[in-house]
Structure formats: structure tokens, C-alpha cells
Amino acid sequence: MNNGKYYSERKYEMVEAQYKQAVENRDIEQNMERVTDIVTYCQTKGYRVFLAMEPVHASYNACFDEAVMDRLVHQHLASLELDVPFLNYMTDERFIHQREYFHNPDHLNGKGRTLLSSLVYEDLKRLGYL
């Protein structure tokens, strides 16, 4: 058992290829416009919006470290200047080395989803959302 290393490496190669194509096709700009539209729409309807990134296993994080995630995701979200909380559980120590919470390195199983739900609930309470 390689602890998800091969899965994560294959996923990284696939995501890099998709990202390159998205840059070439200018899909990122369109997607960021959609995110902004969705957040704005929800806020005009009175919903309190937050964004969240779920935790991943250490083997996945080895391929998608902070520098990679900044390039692929965070820089684009930051450019939107949305006034919404971003709950980032990607490297959360309560998950990252606990294989029993994952279906595969980047998807939680039922036990992991239950724990994440309780953490999100507590964080939203702490932020005054609940």
C-alpha cells in the first residue's frame, strides 16, 4: 500500500493539464465571474455566504502543497476581494494523517464528513453565522 501516493500523483498531473487548458481558454476568468455572481446573488437574497475547502490526506497535500494551491486556487479567489469567510480545512491536522476519514486522498468518507460537518458548524457559530 502506498498510502495514496500514486493516486495523488496521477490527480496532480490531471489537474495541471486541466489548469493549463483553463488558462489557455480563459475559463478561470469566467469561473471567477460566476463565483462573484453567485455570492452577490446570495447576498442580495439575504443569505450569509462562506467558502470552504475540505481536508485532504497527507499524500494529496504532498502534491498540492500551499504553493500549488496558491497558484491554482487562492490567488484567483483573493483577486475577487469577496467579503466572505474562507474556511480552509485542507491541511487540518485533525484529518491530514488519519486515513480512516478518507475514501481516497481527496475525498472524505462518512466518518470524515461527519467530523468536518461538526467543525464547520462550530466555526460558523464562532463567526456569528449561527
Provide a descriptive summary of the structure in words.
The chain is flat. It is built from five helices and four strands; from the N terminus they run ααβααβββα. It has about 130 residues and is mainly alpha-helical.
In short:
Helices cover 59% and strands 8% of the residues. It is mainly alpha-helical.
Features:
130 residues, mainly alpha, two-stranded antiparallel ribbon, 4 strands, flat
The biggest beta sheet reads: 2 strands, parallel
Strand content: 5-15%
Q: Give the helix tally.
A: 5
> In sequence order, what are the helices and strands, one letter per element?
HHEHHEEEH
Strand order of the largest sheet: 1-2
Beta strands, count: 4
Secondary structural class: mainly alpha
What's the shape?
A: flat
Radius of gyration: 16 Å
The portion of residues assigned to helices is 55-70%
Mean pLDDT: 93
Low-confidence segments: none
**Separation of the first and last Cα atoms:** 42 Å
Write the layout of secondary structure elements.
Elements: H1 5-25, H2 27-44, E1 51-53, H3 58-63, H4 66-80, E2 86-88, E3 102-104, E4 107-108, H5 110-126
Parallel strand pairs: 1-2
Antiparallel strand pairs: 3-4
